[in-house]
Write a structure and sequence with these properties.
Blueprint (H helix, E strand, L loop, with lengths): L6 E4 L4 E4 L4 E4 L6 E4 L9 E3 L2 E3 L6 E4 L5 E4 L4 E4 L7 E4 L1 E3 L3 E3 L1 E2 L6 E2 L6 E3 L7 E3 L12
Antiparallel strand pairs: 1-2, 3-4, 5-6, 7-8, 9-10, 11-12, 13-14, 15-16
């Protein structure tokens, strides 16, 4: 038995049953979405795990290239607009055996483990580079 889009095969009754309204296609149960459709207001929904949602959660971005998916940001990015450390809107610490701290460069959507020339890491301001004094080409710990 093959069910049309918008329906799934119920294994108990061997009948096609309707997917939930947010799923374009689903499998096993009505809420286990494979692809997403539109909301009741006609807004694109994004697939996160097996559900369809309006906005992807923090640390995920709305990837429209592969079927409206919530795709995880690169490690080091807290929020992002695409994959890679050069698409970060904010940075975070990454824990994988040891903690690596990422800092967002001023004026760029880039997270790195250091700050570029003209910017410095201020221990009091987490995950964000700070601007050096105009008298300095480089600085450390303070402007």
């Amino acid at each position: 038995l093959t069910c049309p889009d918008g329906e799934y095969q119920n294994t108990t009754s061997s009948r096609c049953l309707l997917c939930s309204a947010s799923c374009l296609t689903c499998i096993n149960v009505d809420t286990e979405c494979v692809t997403c459709g539109l909301s009741n207001a006609g807004v694109t929904l994004f697939k996160y795990l097996t559900t369809c949602i309006l906005d992807c959660p923090i640390s995920f971005w709305e990837d429209t290239s592969g079927g409206n998916l919530c795709t995880a940001c690169s490690p080091g990015c807290l929020t992002c607009t695409a994959l890679g450390l050069d698409a970060c809107q904010s940075c975070t610490d990454v824990v994988s055996g040891s903690t690596t701290i990422y800092y967002k460069e001023i004026g760029a959507d880039v997270c790195g483990t250091t700050c570029p020339d003209g910017q410095f890491i201020d221990a009091a301001i987490p995950n964000l580079c700070q601007k050096c004094s105009s008298a300095c080409i480089t600085c450390v710990n303070t402007a």
